[in-house]
Amino acid sequence: MTREGLWLGARLMAPLAPSSVLDGILFGALAVASGMTPGVAIVLSATAFSGSAQYATLAIFREHGGVGAAILAAAALNVRYLAISATAVANSTASRWRRAASCLLLTDESWAVTSHLEDSGDSLVGAGLVDWSTWTVGTAVGTLVGVHIGTSNRFGLDAAFPAIFAWLLLSGKPWRSAAAAAIVGALVAVALVPISPPGVPVLGAGIVAIVWGLFQ
Amino acid sequence: MRLTRALGFAVPALLAALVVTQFADGTRFVLDARLAGVAAAAVVAIARRPLLLAVATAVASTALIRALT
């Protein structure tokens, strides 16, 4: 591992660091305002290190869904990283274990800023470390903010969660197939909510979308 | 690859389902001022503005409608 590679990745990631801190603050604040303890929120950011998976976990936690449902939903949201990580380290000359370890730090952002490099191995780690530390520190700061918000829904705070998922859905790539999958997911959820316990409608939507995708 | 593509379909489907289930209270749907908040967040997202701005807009517009009604 070269210091130059790490630095290059860190420098490429630096412009995105402030927004990563702000995103972390938002997650930490909403986690605590939802009744999660600050310690759990910070450990979740440090270990899961995935905004969409953490918000999904938090949403299922808020509606008292099971741990199994939260883990499966988080896994389904990130199963695409099987493909992304394979591409990200395709040109790396590092050992198998080191490549696997560097993929733990992989995010859409760290991948985006380093993917143009010939051997992106070390710079991917450098960019990932900047992304990970800013997200985790941001979460810690956010938990301090969250304590003051309280767990009530005054100020329209309960609108934050649907807004987050809508943003994650709509700010992504506007593929036509993604729009179709989103509609399938929404319809399955609408159908399952009246007849199933919390957490199940979300999982059902994911499963139906994957099966539907296989036949496209 | 077909499987990779199919797995990718899970993301928009799960996110759309998560938007829907935020309006569920147990087995019932509660459609209220938050709908306006989500619509505002959608506009922010399509305009490619940051997540924090989307959330702030959604919370503020929801609070505003609740104050007015």
Structural notes for this entry:
The complex is a heterodimer of chains A (216) and B (69). Chain A is built from 12 helices and no strands. The longest helix of chain A has 29 residues, at 121-149. Chain A has helices at residues 3-13, 17-33, 38-47, 51-62, 67-78, 81-88, 96-103, 108-114, 121-149, 160-170, 176-192, 200-214. Chain A is globular, with a radius of gyration of 18 Å. Chain A has 2 domains: 3-172, no CATH class; 174-216. Chain A has 216 residues and is mainly alpha-helical. With 69 residues, chain B is mainly α. Chain B has one domain. Chain B is 72% helix and 6% strand. Chain B has 4 helices and 2 strands. A two-stranded antiparallel sheet of chain B has the order 1-2. In chain B, a hairpin with a 2-residue loop joins strand 1 and strand 2. In chain B, helix 3 (34-46) runs antiparallel to helix 4 (51-68). The longest helix of chain B is centred in the C-terminal third of the chain and has 18 residues, at 51-68. Chain B is flat, with a radius of gyration of 15 Å.
